[in-house]
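step: validate -> pass
step: tokenize input -> pass
step: predict -> running
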Amino acid sequence: MRKIILSVLGILLIVFSFLFAKRLIANKNKPKPVKEKVVKTVFTDTVENSTIKIVIPANGSLVAKRRVELYSEVQGVFKPSAKLFKPGQKYSKGEALIRMDASEHYANVQSAKSKLYNTIAAIMPDLRLDFPEVYPKWQNYLNGFDLSKSTPELPKMTSEKENYFITGRNIVTDYYDVKNLEQRLSKYTITAPFSGVLTEALVTEGSLIRNGQKLGEFIDPSVYEMEVALSKDYANLLKVGESVSLNNLNKTEQYKGTVSRVNGSIDANTQTITAFIEVKDDNLKEGLYLEANLDAKEEQNAIEIDRNLLLESQQIFVVRDSLLDVVDVKPVYFSESKVVLKNVPDGTVILKKSVPGAYAGMLVKPFETSTK
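step: predict -> pass
step: emit ->
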């Protein structure tokens, strides 16, 4: 019985071996499937060289072209006025911004003016006797002397003797002492140098103002300037009076400005040159952040493409007979997302959008969407 079982198992093993060998031979003779070539469809464009206007982007904050920081040169108590000294308060040219109590100093000025008047009056008899030819002009000076008004200028001395006589009585010294006191008296009132608005107020009515103390800031809100820093490569391209397009960050508002000044030197650290753009608009405020687009120059016989289409080797992909190839180009200007190229012949078919994994010799199917 054991021999019969072993004989059956041996026969089955031979049969299975035969079938397995036959299957292997059949699979070996079966032809391998041919791998289908993948042809990528690419977006292309046909080169047509033209004049490309190079626009330099810049940005900055607006600053009032005319602004003054208010400081006190004297000490006194801030007197109340019809207008509150607060940010946003408007003043006309010549209108008083701040008035300080100057009663004590005013009394000193009047005392000095009275002393000058008395000194001149005391020499009038001597002038009548010794200098009758100059007596009338000094008499007219006294007649026009008004203690409530600014001290008039002394009569012009026409002779050496007259000069010695007047100077010897300390009249000239007393006169300039009075003018000095009057000049200081005028500093107790700070007036607006131009029509504008107060943007900063550091004192209030009734407070004691000290000599050298900052009081606030005053600006002219009709004209603003924006300072921008540009690459030194454009130093020769910026011209005063050139028009500039401006817009806010949201690009919802557009403004027109002009280049008012260009710095004559280049920053040694950043290798940039500073330009100032003047802009006028009732809706503008100091500190507003704007973007500017300066027309630098026009590049002849050039094209503009996306920066990601330019290879590190200063080449771009072109399509020739359904195959990708590369050509050398000359970049002349880079913007944030674009690059201006030269030395690309008209009629050259180039990629319009980048292709992942692209290489020279890659089989592609062009799909041209435009001719420019």
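step: describe -> The chain has five helices and 21 strands.
step: cleanup -> pass
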